[in-house]
Amino acid sequence: MAEAADRETIKVTVAGLTGKEPVQCSRDVFICPDASLEDARKEGPYDVVVLPGGNLGAQNLSESPAVKDILKDQESRKGLIAAICAGPTALLAHGIGFGSKVTTHPLAKEKMMNGEHYCYSESRVEKDGNILTSRGPGTSFEFGLAIVETLMGKEVAEQVKAPLILKE
C-alpha cells in the first residue's frame, strides 16, 4: 500500500503503537514507523487510516485506546478506514463500522461473525461506505489499489497498477 501510494505522491505516515522503534510483524518482517501513534494523531486528520493484519498485530490494535480514539475520530468525520487480514477484528473491538459489509482473513471470520455487527463477504476486497477491508497477504495489491482508487479515482489507480505487472 505505502509503495503504491508513494507512486502517486500520497503522503503516508507509518505509526507505531509504542513509538518509532522497529515493529516485528508476522514472519519476522520488521517495519520502522515514521512516528508514534500519539504524534501521528496530532498531525491528523488523515484521508485514510489503514490497519495492517497479523494475529498479534490485530490483537495489539484491538487493545489500544489510542487506536480506538483515531478510529472513532475517523469514523465520526466519515473518513476512509481500511483494514486487511486480521486487522478488521480491531474494528470489531472498537465498535467501528457496525452494519457494514466486511471481509477478513478466513481464520478471523468466526470472530467477525460473533454477533450481528457485520455482514460478512468472501470477496477479496470489500468496500462499504467508508469501510474498506481485504482478506490477507494475497490480496494486498488489490487492497492498496482500492485505497488509491477511493482517494484519487479509478484513472489514477489504473496508472499505479500498470507498472506493477499484476496478474489479471
TrEMBL record:
Family: Belongs to the peptidase C56 family.
SUPFAM superfamilies, per the entry: Class I glutamine amidotransferase-like (SSF52317)
Organism the protein comes from: Grus japonensis (Japanese crane)
Protein name: Parkinson disease protein 7 homolog
One GO cellular component, as annotated: membrane raft
InterPro entries (alphabetical): Class_I_gatase-like, DJ-1, DJ-1/PfpI, Prot/Nucl_acid_deglycase
Compartments, as annotated in UniProt: Cell membrane; Cytoplasm; Endoplasmic reticulum; Membrane raft
Membrane topology note: Lipid-anchor
Gene3D superfamilies named among the record's database cross-references: 3.40.50.880
DJ-1/PfpI domain residues: 3-149
CDD domains in the record: GATase1_DJ-1
GO term, biological process aspect, one: autophagy
